[in-house]
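I had to read the description of the data format several times before I understood it. Each protein is reduced to its one-letter sequence and a matching series of backbone shape codes. The format is easy to grasp once an entry is in front of the reader. For illustration, here is how one protein appears when written out as sequence plus structure tokens:
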Amino acid sequence: MTFYASGLNAYGWTHNDGSMIAAVSMDLFDNYSGYYWATSVNKYICGQKIKATLSVGGLTNTVEVQVADRCEGCAYRDLDFSTGAFLQLVNGIEYSGASGEGIGRITAGAGFSWEWA
């Protein structure tokens, strides 16, 4: 999991860094039921809710986000969060000696999980 600067997304919506959104991997986006290759817009995954959880060092944070974009550099189960959603998820957590935006990326299997909400 990581974060990105929000703006115009794959659906033509504009978000800001405080929006509670995430981008899913290109593979998940393109293969989710309802994907239509001719427009590159997946209307069925658009707006779906995800509950993400991060547990590190005895602290657990959860955030609920809406799918709002497509991440070409993400592995299948990776999520790329808006800055605001990422900061809520890592609030109070230290990871590899860093905190807040300094964490940058949490690798798979490091206490991060998500499910459809």
Q: What stands out?
A: The helical segments are 26-31, 83-90.
